[in-house]
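Give me C-alpha cells for this 281-residue protein.
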Amino acid sequence: MARPGIQKHLDIARLLRCPLCAESLHATACSVRCTRGHDFAISSKGFLNLIPQQGALKGYDEAFFASRQRVMEAGYYRALNEALIQALEDLNLSENPVIIDAGCGEGSHLKAIASRLGGTCIGIDIAKDAVRCAARGGGAERWLVADLANMPMQDHSVDVILNVFTPANYAEFQRILKPNGALVKVVPAPGHMYELRQLAGCNLSHVDVQDHGVAEHLTRHMDLAGRTRTTQTSAVTRELARDLARMSPVTFGMDTQSLDLDALTRITVDAEILIARPSRR
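Here you go.
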C-alpha cells in the first residue's frame, strides 16, 4: 500500500488527463501514467507535479508563499473563507463533490473549505513552491503543479472551481465543469488592502482598486448567477506588516524597505464573490 500522501493522489487518477497528450491518466505504484507513456511521479512531499521541467517563477518563491501562509493563519482572511464556505453550501452540492482551487497558492482557502465541507478537494497552481507549501502537514486535499491554461482534468469532471484573486481561463473552466457545476470567483473590491495602498501611494499608478471589468468579461464566457461582498478589517502586528508587504501584489516590484511598515497597524480584506454557471448559449 502506498503512503497516504501518495495514495490520495493515485485515488484521483480517474479524474485526470495527461497535460502533454490529453489521454486519460492511470495510477501505477507511485505515479500516474497515460497510454502513450507519459509518466508523472508523485512527490514524497505530498504533491503531483505535472510540469516537471518548469523553472522558478520570479517573485513567487518559497519566501513569498511562507509570508502568505502566516498572514492567512493570522485570520485576516477569515471572513472571506466563511463567505466562500457559505457560497458553496448555497450551491447544494451533491455528496462528495469534486472541488478545484484553480490558482491555489499555499492552499489556505481550500483547506478551510475541505475542513468544513469535505469532498474531493484538489488545489492546482503553476508555482511549485506554492504547491510544496500547501502540501505540508498532510491532510486529505490533493495538490497539483499544473497550468490553468492546460488543466489536467477530464472533461466535465468537476463540480466547483474556486478562483481566488488570480487570473482565470474560462475556456478551460467550461471544459472541466459539469453541466450543473459552478465557478466561484473572488475579485478585489474597492477597499481591498486599502491601508497598504495608502502607505505605498506615491509608488502606485492608482491608489484605489481599479475595476477592470472582470464581471463583464466573465459574462462573455459564463452565466453570472450571483454576487456578494465581504469585508474584514483587522489589527496588524509589526511582524505581519512585513509579511503583508512581501505577499501582496500591491507591492510587487517595489522596494518594501522604503515603506514605513510600522505605520501599517490595520489592514482591510475587501472582496466580491462572483458565482457563475457554464454558459448554455
